[in-house]
Each structure stands twice: as structure tokens, then as C-alpha cells.
Amino acid sequence: MGAQFLIVTVFLALASSLAFASDPSPLQDFCVAVDDPKDALFVNGKFCKNPMLATAEDFFRKGLDIAGNTSNKVGSNVTQVNVAQIPGLNTLGVSLARVDYAPYGLNPPHTHPRATEILTVLEGTLYVGFVTSNSDTGNRLITKVLNKGDVFVFPIGLIHFQFNTGHSNAVAIAALSSQNPGVITIANSVFGSNPPISDDVLTKAFQVEKNVVDYLQAQFWVFVNGKFCKNPMLLTAEISAEGTVYSRKTSNKVGSNVTQVNVAQIPGLNTLGVSLARVDYAPYGLNPPHTHPRATEILTVLEGTLYVGFGLIHFQFNTGHSNAVAIAALSSQNPGVITIANSVFGSNPPISDDVLTKAFQVEKNVVDYLQAQFWVNN
Ligand SMILES: *[C@@H]1O[C@H](CO)[C@@H](O)[C@H](O)[C@H]1NC(C)=O
Ligand SMILES: *[C@@H]1O[C@H](CO)[C@@H](O)[C@H](O)[C@H]1NC(C)=O
Ligand SMILES: *[C@@H]1O[C@H](CO)[C@@H](O)[C@H](O)[C@H]1NC(C)=O
């Protein structure tokens, strides 16, 4: 009995120290700190209402029986029910969405940076899939055909889609493990950002000529999943530091090479929530647009000049005539990497033409051309 009590006490002590060992997860894309409170907006979660003043209305929303209008270019519509619609969801780590699909409608490839999704089909037949992050085995495409009553999981941060393969409408309900999961629609984010990502970056990332990039950028992107980042910011980091001894081979199509130092290389990082990478860039080398499903990144330039950008999907481009080197620290022991070009156009097996032509609003030959490129697994 005494020993049992001791074990329980030790376990609780460990559990509570673990619970306080790291910072809380973000609840929005970013929250830049300010000194002067009058410039501030409290967004990491929301202010809390006095519990004595809470009413049932704070936890209530009606109208999810009403279908969204699917007469748009992709033929789908997502009705979100998150903390913006139900204030009572604040700090509770969960939300919901209703997704309507016209016949052959597509919820195009996208990721939720802050949530895992569990989807259930109420009506119709959906072809669904997600692509694993970059790894030795490549970007694996995992797919399934779902019928009424079927349930499927899309792990946090991974690129996924649903396509209505049937002649009639389909409806699904998605639950998400965040009060504000966020949505990054790949086509919109990469080819429809405001301002546009430069041609130098996109031609190298997708290994195609400028006219193909211009053609993709010229498409009209449907904001099916609500808003995404409208104020892309440019970061610059200039810190002098001693160069490291080893340089990596950057003689590949994108002209860059990432050397990862995560839990796979240092087992002691397990549970510690941090890792590192060294990035080498040839002149005009590009670390192509990618995301880390499980981490924020803080990057320091050791040498050279980099043009960098993000809308959560981010990249670095060496604009100089000489090599560049950077060190990136990441807030996960295993941040994962999803290179957009590889994941969308180079997955194994390939994502179907039906999905990609609709998602990128281009003809089959453009998709086939993009898929035919050789993707560097950086
Ligand atoms: C989704 O449906 C709502 C309600 O019918 C409509 O107001 C909205 O414009 C639709 N969104 C898209 C992207 O079609
Ligand atoms: C759906 O949207 C289309 C295009 O915006 C519009 O013409 C149509 O009237 C809408 N349908 C309904 C039922 O609101
Ligand atoms: C990165 O550099 C290492 C060491 O030079 C090399 O073995 C590897 O093939 C390179 N990776 C790429 C993607 O070029």
C-alpha cells in the first residue's frame, strides 16, 4: 500500500513537471510580442468571460443542417464551427466543420497547421487521401474510398484532400483537435499568395519554365476553406558567426542541401521538443517551399544573403553569387518536412489527375508535365 502510494506520488510529480516543461502550443498563425499594451491585441486564445456571466448561447450554434453553396470552381464548401463562431470553445482544443461536395466536387489539397482531423461521411462516396512528410521512402500517398458512415483520420499538418467520386452530392462532418485549426490550401498559398512568390523561387521549386508558373499564378483561386494568411511577412536575419567546417553537396536541381539534426540523429532529444538543421545553398540555390507539420522554425544566416518568405509555407532563396549557409532551430524533436512540389506532384503513388486538375485549375497536360519533373528530396 505504502509502495503503491509512493509510485502514484512519483508518477504525479513527473507528470506535472512534464506538463509544465514546455510552452503552450500556439492558437493562431503567430502572435508578435509588443511592449506597449495599447498596440496589443490578445490573441493567444481569447480573453475569458467571467464564468458567472456565461450562458448557453456561448456554447451554441445553429444551422449546420444547411448545406454550403458548392457552385464554385472546385465544387465544395466548408462551413466552419470554431472559436470564431462559438466563443465557449476558447481553450478547449476542439472544433468542427461541415463539408459539402457537389458531384465530382473537391476539397482541394490543404493542411491544418494546428490540428488532427477526424472525418465522418454522412452522405455519398468520397475518395480521400493524405501524403506523408519527406522521408527516405518519399512522400507516400495514403488513400481510401469512403462511404456513408465511414470515418477517416488526417494526421496534424499533413497535406490531404477529399474528392466526391459520385453522381450525387456528398456531405461530411470533420472534427479537429484545435479551437482554431487554421487552413493552408496548397494551390492558393503557393500560386495565389499576396504578393506573389517570385518566379525565381517557383520555377526552381517546381522545376518548370516561367510560363508554366505564370499560367498557374494566373488562375483564379477559390477560398473554399475560409481565409488564410493575408499579410505575408519577409524576415531577414543577419548575424555574424564563425562558419562551420563541413559543407554539403548542393549540386542538385534546387541547389540546396539540408542536414538534419533531430531525434533520429540524437536519441537524447526524445521528449525535449527541439531540433536543428544546417542548410547549404549554392549561388541562386533554393530551399523550396515547404512546411513543418510539427514545428516553428527560427533561422540564422551564417554566410551569404537569403531572400526568405512565409505564409507558414516557407522558403529560402540564395540571391547572391556565392554560397550561403544557415542554421535552423525547430520547436520539435521531429519537426517533419513537407516539400510542397514533391508532396503534391511527386507523391508515391501519384495523386489522381482528377484531384490535381481541379485543385490547380489547369488542364491534365499541365499536371502531367509537373508530375514528370524529378523532385529533389531535400
Ligand atoms: C459557401 O457557402 C456559403 C453559404 O451558402 C456562401 O455564402 C459562401 O460564399 C460559399 N463559399 C464558397 C467558397 O463557395
Ligand atoms: C450559389 O452561388 C451561385 C454563385 O455565386 C449563385 O448563382 C446561386 O444563386 C447560389 N445558390 C444558392 C442556393 O444560394
Ligand atoms: C547532401 O549532401 C550530402 C553530403 O555531401 C550528400 O550525401 C547528399 O546526397 C546531399 N543531398 C542532396 C539532396 O543533394
Automatic annotation (TrEMBL):
<feature type="disulfide bond">
    <location>
        <begin position="31"/>
        <end position="48"/>
    </location>
</feature>
<feature type="binding site">
    <location>
        <position position="110"/>
    </location>
    <ligand>
        <name>Mn(2+)</name>
    </ligand>
</feature>
<dbReference type="InterPro" id="IPR019780">
    <property type="entry name" value="Germin_Mn-BS"/>
</dbReference>
<keyword id="KW-0464">Manganese</keyword>
<dbReference type="GO" id="GO:0048046">
    <property type="term" value="C:apoplast"/>
</dbReference>
<comment type="similarity">
    <text>Belongs to the germin family.</text>
</comment>
<feature type="domain" description="Cupin type-1">
    <location>
        <begin position="256"/>
        <end position="368"/>
    </location>
</feature>
<dbReference type="GO" id="GO:0030145">
    <property type="term" value="F:manganese ion binding"/>
</dbReference>
<feature type="binding site">
    <location>
        <position position="117"/>
    </location>
    <ligand>
        <name>oxalate</name>
    </ligand>
</feature>
<keyword id="KW-1015">Disulfide bond</keyword>
<keyword id="KW-0964">Secreted</keyword>
<keyword id="KW-0479">Metal-binding</keyword>
<protein>
    <recommendedName>
        <fullName>Cupin type-1 domain-containing protein</fullName>
    </recommendedName>
</protein>
<feature type="domain" description="Cupin type-1">
    <location>
        <begin position="62"/>
        <end position="214"/>
    </location>
</feature>
<feature type="binding site">
    <location>
        <position position="117"/>
    </location>
    <ligand>
        <name>Mn(2+)</name>
    </ligand>
</feature>
<keyword id="KW-0052">Apoplast</keyword>
<dbReference type="Pfam" id="PF00190">
    <property type="entry name" value="Cupin_1"/>
</dbReference>
<dbReference type="InterPro" id="IPR006045">
    <property type="entry name" value="Cupin_1"/>
</dbReference>
<dbReference type="InterPro" id="IPR011051">
    <property type="entry name" value="RmlC_Cupin_sf"/>
</dbReference>
<feature type="binding site">
    <location>
        <position position="112"/>
    </location>
    <ligand>
        <name>oxalate</name>
    </ligand>
</feature>
<feature type="signal peptide">
    <location>
        <begin position="1"/>
        <end position="21"/>
    </location>
</feature>
<keyword id="KW-0732">Signal</keyword>
<feature type="binding site">
    <location>
        <position position="160"/>
    </location>
    <ligand>
        <name>Mn(2+)</name>
    </ligand>
</feature>
<feature type="binding site">
    <location>
        <position position="112"/>
    </location>
    <ligand>
        <name>Mn(2+)</name>
    </ligand>
</feature>
<dbReference type="InterPro" id="IPR014710">
    <property type="entry name" value="RmlC-like_jellyroll"/>
</dbReference>
<dbReference type="InterPro" id="IPR001929">
    <property type="entry name" value="Germin"/>
</dbReference>
<feature type="binding site">
    <location>
        <position position="107"/>
    </location>
    <ligand>
        <name>oxalate</name>
    </ligand>
</feature>
